[in-house]
Write a structure and sequence with these properties.
The chain has a 7-stranded mixed β-sheet, sandwiched between helices. 41% of the residues lie in helices and 14% in strands. It is α/β, with parallel strands linked by helices. Helix 3 (47-54) packs antiparallel against helix 12. The longest helix is centred in the last third of the chain and has 21 residues, at 298-318. It has 2 domains: 3-44 and 299-397, Aspartate Aminotransferase, domain 1 (Alpha-Beta Complex), CATH 3.90.1150; 56-295, 3-Layer(aba) Sandwich (Aspartate Aminotransferase, domain 2), CATH 3.40.640. The radius of gyration is 21 Å and the shape is globular. The structure holds pyridoxal-5'-phosphate (PLP). Pyridoxal-5'-phosphate binds at residues 39, 102-104, 107, 133, 179, 183, 211, 213, 246, 248, 254, 259.
C-alpha cells in the first residue's frame, strides 16, 4: 500500500470532523457554552493522585521500564483478582500484566500483535462493532487488516450479534474488538455473551480484545461482567484474550495516561516485546500514582453515585423523548433525534451545547445507509448543575 493510500484509509479523526461541522456556526452568545461532545470527566481524580505527583523525587534520572514497576503490576493484578473474584494465583503480575500509557495505546498495539499476513494471500479481517472507537479502525488499517464492521443497533441490543457472523468471516478474522460497557450506547455484554465470544475466539483462533475502560461505570445490581469472568467460567485460561482496563474513567484521570492489559503469558510477552521497540514507558511518578488508584475503591464508588445522579437528571428532563433510555454502563446518552448532524448544528447554534453526531462514530452500511445517522452522543461528564442546564436547553431546542 502506498503512503497516499494509507493516508486516505486513515480517515479524519472524529473530533476534527466535528470541528469542521461547527466551524461556521456562532454559538448562542448569552449563555455559557457547554461541551458534552468529549468523553472527558470534568471532576477531579482522588486528591492522593496530585499529592503523589507533587512529592520531590530523585528518580527523574532513571529510564522507567516499559513493563512497569513490580508495585504497579501487583496493584493491577490484585485489583483484577478482587474485581472479578478470581483465584489468588490466576493472574501472575510478572507474566500476565502490562501497564500501558493509556489503553488507547494498548488497543492500537493489540492489532499489531495479532495481525500477520495470511498464507493464502487474503487480507486478514479486524472485526469491530459499529459504532466503534476510532482507534480500533486505525489500528486495523495500519496493521494491514481489513476493518469489518458489525452492526450494534437497537435491534441487536446495541452489541454485535456474533451468532449472525458467517463462520468464514470469523476464520479470516485475526483480531476482534469489543467494548463493554459500550461507548456510546452503554450496553453491557452478559457473561453468556462473553463466554460464547471467547469460545468463538478459540474455535476460529482470533485475538479477542476486550476494551473495558468503562467497566467501573455500571448501574446494574451486579458489577458489569468482563472478559476475565468469561475466562474464569471457561476454565481459567486467558488464551486468545486480551483485556484492557483504564484509570481514565474509573478514577477520572485521563491526564495520567494510565491503564493495563492482562492476558495469557505468551500474549503479554509479545506485547512487552512490541512495546520495548515502540512505546513510551510511563514515568515512575505516574506508575506510583496509578498503583494508588488501583488500590482504592472509595473514590470509584463516589464516582458511580455521581454518574447515577446525572442519569437521574437526564431521565427527568428527557424521559419519553429521543428514544431516551438509562444505559447499564458508561457515561453517555445515545439519543435518536432523527438527523444527528442537523441536531448537532442546531444545538451549537441555538443552545451553545456541543454534542457529537452519531454518524461520526459509525461507518455506512454497504447499501449506503448509516445506522448512527439518526443519533447524537451526549457525554454526561459535567457537574449536576451544568448537566441539568445543558439537557434542559437541548430539550427546548430539539
Ligand atoms: C471506547 C474507548 N476505549 C478506549 C478509550 C481510551 O482510554 P484511555 O484514556 O485509557 O486511553 C476511550 C477513551 O475515551 C474510549 O472511549
Amino acid at each position: 500500500m502506498s503512503l497516499n493510500a494509507r493516508l486516505d484509509a486513515m480517515t479524519d479523526h472524529t473530533f476534527r470532523r466535528l470541528a469542521a461541522l461547527l466551524a461556521d456556526i456562532q454559538p448562542r452568545a448569552n449563555v455559557p457554552p457547554i461541551n458534552l461532545s468529549v468523553g472527558e470527566p470534568t471532576h477531579q481524580p482522588p486528591p492522593f493522585v496530585s499529592e503523589i505527583l507533587a512529592r520531590p523525587r530523585s528518580d527523574w534520572n532513571i529510564y522507567p521500564m516499559y513493563f512497569g514497576t513490580p508495585e504497579l503490576r501487583r496493584a493491577c493484578a490484585a485489583w483484577a483478582t478482587r474485581r472479578y473474584r478470581l483465584p489468588a494465583t490466576a493472574i501472575d503480575p510478572d507474566q500476565m500484566i502490562v501497564p500501558v500509557s493509556g489503553t488507547r495505546e494498548g488497543l492500537y498495539f493489540a492489532a499489531t500483535l495479532a495481525v500477520t499476513p495470511a498464507a493464502n494471500g487474503q487480507r486478514p479481517l479486524a472485526l469491530m462493532p459499529n459504532p466503534f472507537y476510532q482507534v480500533y479502525y486505525g489500528a486495523a488499517v495500519m496493521a494491514g487488516a481489513e476493518p469489518a464492521f458489525l452492526p450494534a443497533t437497537k435491534a441487536t441490543g446495541f452489541l454485535p450479534d456474533f451468532d449472525a457472523v458467517d463462520p468464514a468471516v470469523l476464520d479470516r478474522a485475526q483480531v476482534v474488538y469489543l467494548c463493554s460497557p459500550a461507548n456510546p450506547q452503554g450496553a453491557v455484554a452478559s457473561l453468556d455473551y462473553l463466554k460464547r465470544l471467547l469460545t468463538l475466539a478459540r474455535k476460529h483462533d482470533f485475538l479477542l480484545v476486550m476494551d473495558e475502560c468503562y467497566s467501573e461505570l455500571y448501574y446494574t445490581k451486579e458489577p458489569a461482567p468482563g472478559g476475565l469472568d468469561a475466562a474464569k467460567a471457561l476454565g481459567g485460561s486467558l488464551d486468545n484474550l486480551l483485556v484492557f482496563h483504564s484509570l481514565s474513567k474509573r478514577s477520572s484521570a485521563p491526564g495520567l495516561r494510565s491503564g493495563f492489559a492482562t492476558g495469557a503469558p505468551k500474549t503479554i510477552a509479545l506485547m512487552n516485546r512490541l512495546r520495548s521497540y515502540s512505546a513510551a514507558a510511563q514515568p515512575l511518578a505516574i506508575m506510583e500514582a496509578s498503583a494508588a488508584c488501583w488500590k482504592d475503591e472509595e473514590h470509584v464508588e463516589k464516582m458511580r453515585a455521581h454518574y447515577r445522579a446525572l442519569y437521574d437528571i437526564a431521565e427527568r428532563v428527557l424521559k419519553g423523548r429521543f428514544g431516551f433510555y438509562r444505559p447499564d454502563g458508561g457515561f453517555y446518552l445515545w439519543l435518536d433525534v432523527g438527523d444527528g448532524e442537523a441536531a448537532c448544528k442546531r444545538l451549537w447554534g441555538e443552545a451553545a451545547v456541543r454534542v457529537l453526531p452519531g454518524s461520526y462514530m459509525t461507518r455506512a452500511n454497504p447499501d449506503g445507509s448509516n445506522d448512527g445517522a439518526p443519533y447524537i452522543r451526549v457525554a454526561l461528564v459535567g457537574d449536576r448543575e451544568s448537566t441539568e442546564e445543558a439537557l434542559t436547553r437541548m430539550a427546548r431546542v430539539l
